[in-house]
Design goal:
With about 130 residues, the protein is α/β, with parallel strands linked by helices. The protein is about 45% helix and about 20% strand. Strands 2-1-3-4-5 form a five-stranded parallel β-sheet, with helices on both faces. The chain is globular and about 30 Å long.
Length: about 130
């Protein structure tokens, strides 16, 4: 049985998805990737095994804030931890993400140990 927690990484940058995937895989997590909010929401809707989502804000088709809002409308996603990973740091945007249901905010470039600590903390209850 695979007891690795599955983390969804939603970012339009393949390089960022790869960086996050490498860091999390080394920490013992399984990583699923999506290239934008539309794909991310679709993965969340179909894969009930996702333990946590790490999501960029600025993406084509559907941005991260819209994706969080859409995903959190579904009752089964109420407890799903979502952390924004972005170059944005404006307090108003951070508040908007938290109001939409995001649990945290990490500014790129991220520190690997900080990311792993956040993921471990937020998936501990999952």
């Amino acid at each position: 049985m695979n007891d690795k927690k599955r983390i969804l990484v939603v970012d339009d940058s393949a390089a960022v998805r790869q960086q996050v995937a490498i860091v999390l895989a080394e920490a013992g997590f399984e990583v699923v990737e999506a290239g934008d909010g539309v794909d991310g929401a679709s993965v969340i809707a179909t894969d009930r095994g996702i333990a946590m989502v790490i999501c960029d804000v600025n993406m084509p088709r559907m941005n991260g804030l819209d994706m969080v809002t859409q995903v959190k409308k579904e009752a089964q996603n109420a407890a799903l931890p979502i952390v924004m990973l972005t170059t944005e740091g404006q307090p108003a945007m951070i508040k908007q993400a938290k109001d939409a249901g995001a649990k945290g905010w990490i500014v790129k470039p991220f520190k690997a140990d900080q990311l792993v600590a956040t993921v471990k903390k937020l998936t501990a209850a999952a």
